[in-house]
Amino acid sequence: MPRHQNRAAAGGRRRASHSMESVLTEAVALLDEAGPSALTFRALAQRLGGGVASIYWYVASKDELLDRATDHVIGGVLAEIEAIEPGDDPIDDLRAMSLTLFDAILVRPWLGNYFMRNTDVQGNALRLYEKLGQPTLRLKLTARQRFHAVSAITTVVVGSAVDLGQEPPQEVLDGALGRDEFLGRFAATWRELDAQDFPFVHEIVDEFDGHDDIEQFRAALDLTLTGLRLQAGA
Amino acid sequence: MPRHQNRAAAGGRRRASHSMESVLTEAVALLDEAGPSALTFRALAQRLGGGVASIYWYVASKDELLDRATDHVIGGVLAEIEAIEPGDDPIDDLRAMSLTLFDAILVRPWLGNYFMRNTDVQGNALRLYEKLGQPTLRLKLTARQRFHAVSAITTVVVGSAVDLGQEPPQEVLDGALGRDEFLGRFAATWRELDAQDFPFVHEIVDEFDGHDDIEQFRAALDLTLTGLRLQAGA
DNA sequence: ATCTCTATCGAACGCTGTTCTATCGTACCT
DNA sequence: AGGTACGATAGAACAGCGTTCGATAGAGAT
């Protein structure tokens, strides 16, 4: 592991000169551009203009690379969340923070899969967890209820995000097939199901067709927050 | 794809004779015994006493294998859920179904990662989705609210389960390190954090230490169901 | 000038999912 | 019976992956 940051990158030489920063930045860029399957040590090395093995000086394994890359961008999210001014209602604050986190995962669907995997490496994730928990300190709850509340909220956020994070079947990644057509195709097969056996699916198929992910998430979050509000007796 | 099931497996011959059933059963067995990383085509072929390429006659890719294996066991869960007698309160029914599903994922943590990935292949998952939705038909809700409610519940169930499904760091898989010690080690590092900067983490660290996953899930589920009950105006 | 330590890299290893091609065995048709 | 089509099996090879090894370049200290 590197003990000192790289001071400067020497000019056009043979050997490449990296830094933790550049490694994580390029890793994130790869994840953003083409999803988790595109982040390979070879692809990353090529982007950095160096050899494969060099990356192992900064990172002990791919898992650690993913954890550090995740925490790297979570740092930005944390800053956004810390910039939120606390209001009168703690639950409204929780709501705002959750939406900010969700938005971030919406832009980078891969985040959900690695977020909070290992708080040893993911220091920013831990800080974010703390930040999410602080509003609950202003609620009339037991410590256990607070713990469960924040767990429930992160579950909803990350769970919703993971749903979205599933790599679409290539056709929509290419842009050949739009998201609406993708949903529509599912909806079409659902509509062909027997109406007797699948009354619920028929009831909601029009809602599913072309639905908005953010709205769906907001609905799930609000159910949880309503429950929490009731629990806090406010 | 096989059009006919295998009628009989001829006695001790050279060539192996499979069936969709046996392929999925052995795949599930591998997943159960040693997690997703243990399910490889080579390991599976060895268990089936045949060659690697044979599996591709039943399944077009590993993704499909995972989808079918998942749906295979979801079939059992579906039967359990269909055996539940509907009661007076639709939300109580929802609760019972969710707990049944969660229990199933608790026993097979890998389930959460593949559940509902592709309802084309996962027919039982679709039926389970329908079953989860039916109680909401008895609630005073709009179609959209019903859709969002069931999505929220599956998110909580699967989200909680995925959290648990993360392959533990080998030490606890070996049994060398118990789950309690594993949690305790995290708790210990959390306790060493600055109390000023991490008031919430300090507040809940004792709850985290040695916490029960099922209880944590139940708390998250109940928050959502309470919110839903309020929404339905009951 | 030599030594040490940081940082780099090419080549190789073992593993993976997947494909190619060849084949066996059975059921059916004449 | 003999021929043929096809369901079903399998070994070998391929490309790609994460990871390890051993060698080595460069900069600063002695």
From TrEMBL, chains A, B:
Residues 40-59 bind DNA. The lineage of its organism: Bacteria, Bacillati, Actinomycetota, Actinomycetes, Kitasatosporales. Keywords: DNA-binding, Transcription, Transcription regulation. Coiled coil: none annotated. InterPro entries: Homeodomain-like_sf (IPR009057), HTH-type_TetR-like_transc_reg (IPR050109), HTH_TetR (IPR001647), Repressor_TetR_C (IPR004111), Tet_transcr_reg_TetR-rel_C_sf (IPR036271). This is Transcriptional regulator, AcrR family. Residues 17-77 form the HTH tetR-type domain. It comes from the Bacteria. Pfam families: TetR_C_1, TetR_N. The keyword Transcription applies.
